[in-house]
């Protein structure tokens, strides 16, 4: 909690009838120079990431980090435990039995990769986040079921009315302004 | 019924593949169809089944209590049958779980569109089956409260686990499998939980589903990471599922017991797992799609495809049996020959052996015929027979090999006690309880993925006759609660 009151976030929200209309409107708005826009849809939009001009996802790198951590950790602890700290002689087999380390190494790599992906998706999305200004609009509830929405942060360029007019011209069926609650 | 008529109409033209999603749907009607069963009050049938499942769960509580209070001596295990029902049921349940991962992961990577309607369902099955599976080795340790000894932790004893033992590999494999399946399932659920939150009518429902949805708002920036993450999860689940049953088979294959000591075990176990898992999906999905009114998204084509997989994996399993017998004879090893040709086929458990052959080798072959692949009653009965057969297979592998090994002086027969049976039936109860709760509280079909698929299909295809549309649409309104 900061001492200063947080600046209120406000967005222009526009609903489009079809996913294609949303994607092309997003493209148009991006070409006009709007930044920080976001689309909302019940399923991933084809060409949605390109329309928003997003850089490649970082999830694969986080996953790779998980995999490498898993491999190194598993090899290290098995070698330390069964070769160095507590060597067990089983029928004269070498105490450093790398082939026998493979299954656990593989499993730990998969486990940490999965954790990397899961927390990567959530972390990059800043989830869980129970509140977001877009939830102020009741109509916006359709975004998870059958609505295709675009949000434009108002503060970036000029007035909300102007943005709303432009969005209507691009085929928005419904436009509104939402303002976040004070923290 | 109009719906059946619609499906037959669609099936009439053999050159047109039958639709994966009934063609008359849009996002809104899909919502209604797929979320409806969550909002609807469960019917009498659900409560009856739930009661039945709970009573079976009671048997589990009883069996586990007796086991914990009096020890594993209450089980039928003896010398030489140190492994019996506990391991049979463990392998059986893990195997059932594998079809879920196969459907959700491998078919996603192969871009098999038909997986979309059934993956949620199959993943839930995986999760619950692995939970049931995990109980058995845990109880078999005798003192499950010391189960953490299996994990490497700095103990005062100064000892570490023996990482050359497949039993320790199992611990890592099963716990990883359970965790990754749960993550995969939950990641897939998040958008649907948001849909439930946003279509809920009551405040309590909104809060609960909202909490599980983590504030998901379908943002394009989130989907951007989600899409690739989901694909990667599928990518790592694919080798994971193969590794898990491979490691389970190592429990046997690395030993010297006749009938276990075979290099064919890993692939043969994985095929058997997929075989029984798909059968279990059929067993569950046939009644569920009827009562949840999901025929528009889980179509006859899905069932037929699954039956084809059952046929294919059934043939692999049969080949596995053939090879085991051939190698036993070809090796010239008298213990192997005894195990396969005398003990299994003509010994004290020959009945179970021949039941296994009938269920696993003969039954799947009916799916060569389209009539059988598309007949609901036939496939349902066959799927149950396959599951019985696969249970018998594990019984045969484990019990016959142990009862008569190298020294006749150490031979002894095995028979399960009532505690064994009540724990086994109890896990069926646990599984059904969890599954019924799943069907009640969560969309049984991945709504968001079906919408995406439906859009793709609309973009791609031009077929789908008008007559079919109206007929099926009529039933939909009729069917919608």
Description:
The complex is a heterodimer of chains A (183) and B (481). Chain A has helices at 19-31, 48-52, 59-85, 98-124, 160-169, and strands spanning 10-16, 38-40, 148-153, 174-179. Chain A is α+β, with helices and mostly antiparallel strands. Chain A folds into 2 domains: 10-51 and 131-179, 2-Layer Sandwich (Alpha-Beta Plaits), CATH 3.30.70; 59-124, no CATH class. Chain A has a 4-stranded antiparallel beta sheet. In chain A, helix 3 (59-85) packs antiparallel against helix 4 (98-124). Chain B has one domain: Formate dehydrogenase/DMSO reductase fold (Up-down Bundle). The two termini of chain B are 16 Å apart. Mean pLDDT of chain B is 85; it is low at 1-15 and 462-481. By secondary structure, chain B is mostly helical. Chain B has 17 helices and no strands. In chain B, helix 4 (85-109) packs antiparallel against helix 5 (119-140). The radius of gyration of chain B is 24 Å and the shape is globular. In chain B, 72% of the residues lie in helices and 0% in strands. The interface between A and B is large, with 63 and 62 residues.
Provide the fold topology.
The complex is a heterodimer of chains A (183) and B (481).
Chain A: E1 10-16, H1 19-31, E2 38-40, H2 48-52, H3 59-85, H4 98-124, E3 148-153, H5 160-169, E4 174-179
Antiparallel strand pairs in A: 1-3, 1-4, 2-3
Chain B: H1 2-12, H2 27-39, H3 44-70, H4 85-109, H5 119-140, H6 166-199, H7 203-213, H8 220-253, H9 265-291, H10 300-331, H11 334-346, H12 350-362, H13 370-374, H14 376-403, H15 418-441, H16 447-460, H17 466-479
Helix pairs in contact in B: 1-17, 3-15, 4-5, 4-8, 4-9, 4-14, 5-6, 5-15, 6-7, 6-8, 8-9, 9-10, 9-14, 10-11, 11-12, 12-14
């Amino acid at each position: 909690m900061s001492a200063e009151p947080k600046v209120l976030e406000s967005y222009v929200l526009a609903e489009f009838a079809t996913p294609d209309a949303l994607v092309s409107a997003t493209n148009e708005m991006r070409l006009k120079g709007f930044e920080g826009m976001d689309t909302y849809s019940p399923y991933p939009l084809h060409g949605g990431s390109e329309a928003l001009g997003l850089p490649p996802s970082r999830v694969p790198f986080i996953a790779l980090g998980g995999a490498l951590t898993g491999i190194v950790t598993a090899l290290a602890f098995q070698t330390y435990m069964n070769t160095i700290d507590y060597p067990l002689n089983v029928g004269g087999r070498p105490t450093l039995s790398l082939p026998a380390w493979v299954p656990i190494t593989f499993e730990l790599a998969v486990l940490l990769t999965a954790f990397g992906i899961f927390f990567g998706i959530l972390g990059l999305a800043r989830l869980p986040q129970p509140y977001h200004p877009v939830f102020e609009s009741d109509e916006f509830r359709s975004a998870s079921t059958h609505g295709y929405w675009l949000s434009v942060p108002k503060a970036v360029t000029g007035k909300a009315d102007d943005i709303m007019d432009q969005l209507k011209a691009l085929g928005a069926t419904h436009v509104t302004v939402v303002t976040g609650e004070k923290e | 019924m109009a719906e059946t008529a619609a499906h037959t109409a669609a099936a009439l033209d053999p050159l047109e593949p039958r639709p994966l999603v009934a063609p008359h749907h849009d996002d809104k009607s899909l919502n209604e169809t797929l979320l409806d069963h969550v909002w609807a009050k469960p019917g009498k049938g659900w409560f009856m089944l739930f009661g039945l499942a709970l009573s079976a769960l009671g048997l589990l509580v009883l069996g586990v209590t007796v086991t914990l209070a009096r020890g594993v001596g209450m089980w039928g295990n003896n010398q030489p049958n140190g492994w019996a029902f506990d391991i049979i049921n463990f392998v059986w349940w893990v195997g059932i779980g594998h079809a879920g991962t196969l459907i959700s992961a491998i078919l996603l990577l192969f871009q098999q569109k038909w997986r979309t309607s059934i993956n949620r369902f199959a993943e839930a099955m995986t999760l619950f089956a692995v939970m049931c599976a995990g109980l058995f080795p845990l109880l078999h340790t005798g003192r499950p409260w010391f189960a953490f000894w299996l994990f490497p932790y700095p103990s005062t004893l100064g000892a570490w686990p023996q990482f050359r033992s497949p039993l320790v590999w199992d611990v890592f494999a099963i716990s990883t499998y359970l965790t990754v399946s749960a993550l995969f399932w939950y990641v897939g659920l998040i958008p649907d939980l948001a849909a439930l939150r946003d279509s809920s009518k009551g405040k309590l429902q909104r809060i609960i589903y909202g909490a599980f949805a983590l504030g998901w708002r379908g943002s394009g920036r989130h989907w951007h990471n989600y899409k690739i993450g989901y694909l990667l999860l599928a990518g790592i689940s694919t080798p994971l599922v193969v590794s898990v049953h491979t490691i389970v088979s190592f429990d046997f294959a690395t030993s010297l017991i006749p009938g276990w000591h075979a290099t064919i075990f890993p692939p043969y176990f994985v095929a058997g797992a997929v075989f029984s898992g798909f059968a279990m999906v059929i067993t569950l999905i046939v009644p569920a799609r009827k009562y949840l009114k999901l025929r528009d998204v889980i179509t006859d084509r899905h069932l037929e495809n699954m039956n084809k997989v059952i046929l294919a994996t059934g043939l692999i399993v049969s080949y596995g049996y053939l090879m085991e017998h051939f190698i036993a004879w070809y090796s010239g090893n008298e213990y192997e020959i005894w195990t396969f040709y005398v003990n299994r086929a003509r010994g004290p458990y020959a009945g179970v052996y021949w039941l296994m052959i009938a269920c696993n080798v003969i039954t799947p072959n009916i799916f060569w015929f389209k009539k059988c692949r598309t007949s609901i009653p036939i496939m349902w009965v066959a799927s149950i027979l396959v599951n019985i057969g696969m249970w018998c297979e594990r019984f045969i592998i484990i019990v016959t090999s142990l009862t008569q090994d190298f020294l006749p002086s150490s031979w002894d027969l095995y028979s399960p006690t009532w505690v064994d049976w009540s724990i086994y039936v109890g896990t069926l109860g646990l599984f059904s309880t969890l599954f019924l709760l799943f069907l009640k509280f969560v969309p049984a079909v991945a709504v968001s993925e079906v919408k995406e698929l439906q859009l793709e299909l609309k973009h791609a295809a031009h077929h789908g006759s008008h007559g079919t549309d109206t007929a099926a649409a009529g039933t939909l309104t009729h069917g919608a609660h």
